[in-house]
Design brief:
The protein has helices at about 5-10, 25-55. It is mainly α. The chain is rod-shaped.
């Protein structure tokens, strides 16, 4: 089951608050759980980025120009600021 946004942001389920003072093993488990969630989020974002890039690149046309080729240059007003 993927982590909820609340798990990602706060590292805990909604309505569950843990007192992490004084117990080193619980603190270590909490930190490891958060690290694992962040790794999973990074992997998901990377896969999503690759998917969108592949979809975008399908419509990309490679253009190559040589010295002396005539090209049409169109500048918008924003370019002159």
């Amino acid at each position: 089951m993927p982590p909820s946004p609340l798990d990602i942001a706060y590292g805990q389920d909604r309505g569950v608050r843990e007192d992490l003072t004084g117990d080193a093993s619980r603190v270590e488990n909490f930190v490891q759980k958060n690290k694992q969630i962040h790794i999973q989020v990074q992997e998901t974002l990377q896969k999503s980025h690759e998917k969108y890039k592949a979809r975008h690149d399908q419509h990309n046309i490679e253009k190559s120009f040589k010295v002396g080729d005539r090209v049409w240059l169109q500048l918008n007003k924003e370019r002159y600021n």
